[in-house]
Design a protein that fits this description.
Structural class: alpha/beta
Distance between the termini: 44 Å
Number of domains: 1
Strand content: 15-25%
Helix content: 40-55%
CATH architecture: 3-Layer(aba) Sandwich
CATH topology: Rossmann fold
Shape: globular
Strand order of the largest sheet: 1-2-4-3-5-6-7-8
CATH superfamily: Alpha/Beta hydrolase fold, catalytic domain
Order of helices and strands: HHHEEEHEHEHEHHEHEH
Largest sheet: 8 strands, mixed
Number of helices: 10
C-alpha cells in the first residue's frame, strides 16, 4: 500500500525517503528513542545537507528586539537597503522544540529575494526549556516592536507587516494573526503559512493517513506537543484552527503537501477562513512531504514554484 502511494513522490525525494526509513528501522533496532538532542540534531543536519544554495542579500544583520522580560534576537534581511520596503516577520519551524535563525538562514534569504520584502527572522525560545507560551510571547513582542527596531537601525521600511511561518512557526504566525484582531495598533496585512501546524489535537484524517513513514510522524508530533504544552493546556482552545475569526483577519495563503500529516488541517483552515468571508487561498503541492523547502536539493523546481507563489501573493494588495 505504501509502495503504491510512494509512486507519486518525485524519484530523488523517494530515494531519499527510502534511505530515511531504513535508517530509522536500524536505529529502532538499536534502542533509539526520541530526545531533544537527536531531534534538533536531525532537523539541522537534514536542512544543512539539503539546502545548499545560499544567495546573497544586500543587507543582513543581527539585532535584538527589546521586549519586557526577554530581549528577542532577530536577523534582518533587507533586499534593497535604500528603499522603504514592506516588512514580513518570519517564524521558523521545528515543532516548537528545534530550528533557529541560523539553520533557516538560506531559506529566509530566498524569501527576501522572492518577496522583495524586509524579512525579520525571529529567534524565539524553544521547549522544553521554555514551554508554552514563551515562544508565542516572543513572537508577539517581535510583531509589536519590529518597526521600532528597524527605526532604531535607520533602515527604511514601509508600515506594512506580514507574517510568514512554516510548520510549528505556522502555528505561531497564525496564533498571532488571531490575537492581533484584538490588539489595538497591531495590524497584520497578510498571513503566509507553509505546511502549518494548526490543530494541537491532531484530529484531522491526514494525521493517520500520513502519520508514519513520511518523515514527520504522529508519534514525534505528540512528543513535541507534550514537550511544548506540558499537558496542562486545553489544546483545542489554543489551536489556530478553532480560534475566533473577525473581519479584521488578514488575507491568507496556506501551502500544503500531499504526504504531510498536517495537510488536512491546512485545507480545513482555508475553508474556515473562507466561510468567514476572509480572502484565503491554498497552494497544494502533489507528491511532496512536510517541510519540503528544507529538502530543496531533492525537489528544486517545486521549491522555486513555492517561493514564486509566495512572492506573487505578497505583491498583491488587498
Amino acid at each position: 500500500m505504501q509502495r503504491d502511494r510512494d509512486a507519486a513522490i518525485p524519484q530523488p525525494l523517494r530515494d531519499w525517503l527510502q534511505t530515511v526509513r531504513a535508517a530509522k528501522a536500524a536505529a529502532l533496532a538499536g534502542g533509539y528513542r526520541i530526545t531533544i538532542v537527536n531531534t534538533r540534531e536531525t532537523f539541522e543536519g537534514i536542512t544543512r545537507g539539503l539546502v545548499t544554495e545560499r544567495p546573497e542579500v544586500a543587507l543582513v544583520r543581527d539585532d535584538v528586539i527589546a521586549a519586557p522580560g526577554y530581549p528577542v534576537p532577530v536577523r534582518i534581511y533587507h533586499p534593497a537597503p535604500d528603499e522603504p520596503r514592506p516588512v514580513a516577520l518570519f517564524l521558523h519551524g521545528g515543532g516548537h522544540v528545534s530550528g533557529g535563525v541560523a539553520m533557516y538562514d538560506p531559506l529566509v534569504r530566498k524569501l527576501a529575494l522572492a518577496t522583495g520584502r524586509i524579512i525579520v527572522s525571529v529567534e524565539y525560545r524553544l521547549a522544553p526549556e521554555c514551554p508554552y507560551p514563551a515562544g508565542l510571547m516572543d513572537c508577539m513582542a517581535a510583531a509589536k516592536r519590529v518597526h521600532r527596531c528597524l527605526d532604531g537601525l535607520d533602515l527604511p521600511h514601509a508600515p506594512n507587516l506580514a507574517l510568514i511561518g512554516d510548520s510549528g512557526g505556522g502555528a505561531l504566525a497564525a496564533s498571532i494573526a488571531h490575537l492581533a484582531q484584538f490588539e489595538p495598533g497591531l495590524a497584520i496585512e497578510a498571513l503566509v503559512l507553509l505546511y502549518p501546524s494548526l490543530d494541537y489535537t491532531l484530529s484531522q484524517p491526514s494525521v493517520m493517513e500520513n502519520g508514519e513513514g513520511y518523515v514527520l510522524e504522529r508519534e514525534r508530533m505528540l512528543w513535541m506537543f507534550d514537550s511544548y504544552l506540558l499537558g496542562q493546556q486545553n489544546r483545542r482552545d489554543i489551536s489556530p484552527l478553532f480560534m475566533d475569526i473577525t473581519p479584521a483577519f488578514p488575507r491568507t495563503l496556506v501551502v500544503t503537501a500531499e504526504f504531510d500529516p498536517l495537510r488536512d488541517e491546512g485545507a480545513a483552515y482555508v475553508q474556515r477562513l473562507q466561510e468567514h468571508g476572509i480572502a484565503a487561498e491554498r497552494l497544494h503541492m502533489p507528491g511532496l512531504l512536510h517541510a519540503y523547502l528544507n529538502l530543496e536539493d531533492l525537489v528544486p523546481e517545486q521549491c522555486r514554484e513555492t517561493y514564486a507563489a509566495l512572492g506573487a501573493f505578497l505583491a498583491r494588495r488587498g
